[in-house]
C-alpha cells in the first residue's frame, strides 16, 4: 500500500502543477459512462478512462469521478452507488483505499454539484462523445494545455506503475506460451487466440488491445484482427502481438515463430530472417541509454534492417545505399516503438516539453510514435520487424536498381513477416526488460 500511496502523491503533484501552469483551480477526472448500441438496450463493453485508472485500479465502475482541489489534501473519489437488482454487485474498491482517497458516494451524476465546484476553473478530463453532459455545467472540457503537462510527465513511471507493468508482462507471457503450443498443434488463428484468453484468464474486452494472431501470409498484416476460424493447410509461421492488463496497466508483446512443416524451399531463409530480427532487436536493446534520441534510434534501426536483409540475401549492395534509397521503409514501415502505460500507446510520445510543444516525427518516418529523448523512468517498447507487404514493394518492382532479390521475396511472401517486441523501463542503473524477464521466469 505504501507504494500505491506514494504513487498517488506523485500524481497529485503533477496534476496540481498542470493546473498552475494552465491557470485553473481544480480537476474532475471521469471514469467514463456506458454507451449503448443504436436503438438497443445492450451496452458496448466498458473501458475506463486511461487517466482515471492511473489514479485508481477501478476498471468496471462507470460514472465515477476523481476530484482534485487545492484545499483538499487527498483526492476525492466520487463513487456512484445505487440499488440495483438487475445486475451483479459492482466491482469492490481496492483494499485500504480509504487511506488514500476521500470517498463521497452519490446516486445521480447531477448531484455532483452538491459536492464539487463545477465552474470554468475546473478542468474535466474524460470522454464526452463530443458533447458536454449537462451535469458538468460550466467546466472546461479537456483543456489541451493542462493535459499536455500531464501527458509529458506520464512518460516517467512510479515504482507502483513499473510493478504493475511487470505483472502485466508476467500474465501476458502465460498467454504467449499457450499460443505457441496452439500454433505447434496446428490450430486456427481463432483457436490460438482462445488459448491465449484461457491462459491469461481474461475476456476479450479485458485485454489492453485486440490480439493480433497472424498465420502465414497474415503475419504481414500489421494489425491483423480478423482471426480466421479455420486452420490453413500448412502452418508456416505465426506472428502474435498480444498483451494483458494488471491494475489497469498494459503489456504489449510480439513474438514470431516458424514450424518445420513447410514444404517449400524458403523455410530455412525464413528462420534466418527470424534470427536476424532477434539479433538486431537485441542490438537495439544494447544501444539503449539515458540521453539517447529515440528518433536517431529509429534511424539506426533502418541500418540494422538493411544489414539483416543483405545478410539473408533479400537485398544486394551496401547498408548505406539501402537506407538512402528508402527501400528499408518498404520492409519496415512502422515506428520502432512507443510509450506504454495505462494506454498501450501512451499519449505524450511527440511532446518536446511540458509546455505542449511538439516534436513531429521525421517526414520520411511519419508513423514513429515516439520522438523523445530517453530519460530515467520512461517505459516504452522496442519492436523492429521485417515484412513482405506487396502494396509497399510494388513501386520498387519497376526500378532496375532496387537491389531486391525478387525471387527470394516471392519465396518468403507465404510466411508474411517477423516482429519481435519487448516492453522496457530505463533507469539510471540501465534497462529493465519487463518482457524477457517474464519469459525467463516462466520457462526457467
From TrEMBL:
It catalyses: Xaa-L-Pro dipeptide + H2O = an L-alpha-amino acid + L-proline. Its EC number is 3.4.13.9. Keywords: Dipeptidase, Hydrolase, Manganese, Metal-binding, Metalloprotease, Protease. Mn(2+) 1 binds at residues 252, 338, 383, 421. GO terms for cellular component: cytosol. Binds 2 manganese ions per subunit. Pfam families: PepQ_N, Peptidase_M24. Residues 3-152 form the Xaa-Pro dipeptidase N-terminal domain. Its cofactor is Mn(2+). InterPro entries: Creatin/AminoP/Spt16_N, Creatinase/aminopeptidase-like, PepQ_N, Pept_M24, X-Pro_dipept-like, X_Pro_dipept. Mn(2+) 2 binds at residues 241, 252, 421. It comes from the Bacteria. One of its GO terms (molecular function) is metalloexopeptidase activity. Signal peptide: none annotated. GO terms for biological process: proteolysis. Residues 164-428 form the Peptidase M24 domain. Splits dipeptides with a prolyl residue in the C-terminal position. Belongs to the peptidase M24B family. Bacterial-type prolidase subfamily. This is Xaa-Pro dipeptidase. It comes from Marinibactrum halimedae.
